[in-house]
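tl;dr need the bound structure. longer version: we got a ligand (S-adenosyl-L-homocysteine) that a collaborator sent over and nobodys looked at where it sits. i said id run it. heres the input, straight from their email, havent touched it
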Amino acid sequence: MIKKLDIEGRGMTSQRTRDRLIQRLRDRGIQDEGVLAVMRRVPRHLFVDEALASRSYEDTALPIGHGQTISQPYIVARMTELLLKGSNPENVLEVGTGSGYQAAVLGGLVKKLHTVEVIPELYRNARDLLYQLGYRNIYAHQSDGSWGWAQETPFDAIIATAAPEKVPETLLQQLKIGGVMVIPVGGQNQSQQLQCIYRLDEDEYRIDKHESVQFVPFVTK
Ligand code: SAH
């Protein structure tokens, strides 16, 4: 059952506040106009607790409960840009739904998004919010993302928003040949690195290493 959320009553943020965030993303080097346009539209203030809504268009990560965070907008933009670079993925998997914000951004850009979250309450909240915001191409599941989402494999692209020490083999296998995975890699107490992993052939992958990042750890059983 979908829980009805009171989103109408949750104040509008001025378009100027949102435009300021978009300008900041441009200043930091985000160039994909499609990504910027979608991020200008997605109401990030609805993905955080009401008490934090006034800070929701700052370029910063914010707590979403259960020790988890909604990623910093710049990181969302950067990972989305890397994921879409030079391709038009149709069937995409996200591991780590969290607040559902990254999913909403992707939902405005790709045909079909499957997103998996391991914490039941976060899964339910994100599922209900995304449904209420009108997304019908986002399929939320409660599951351990170490196992990807076998029912819809293979994926043109995979994005993980929690950092494993080592990329799970199952996720590598669920990537289509020619597809890309964008994932932060590294344990919590060591530095993590944003990686793009391209599947070139059945057993051949290429890894492009990017900047250091800070994500919550990828939970594995
Ligand atoms: N994309 C999110 C970021 C959430 S933080 C957003 O836009 O808000 C990372 C999320 O990954 C957390 O909610 C955490 O519970 C989830 N997570 C961690 N390990 C996981 C796993 N093995 N499978 C599924 N979700 C996982």
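gonna send this back to them w/ a short note. The first helix runs from residue 15 to 27.
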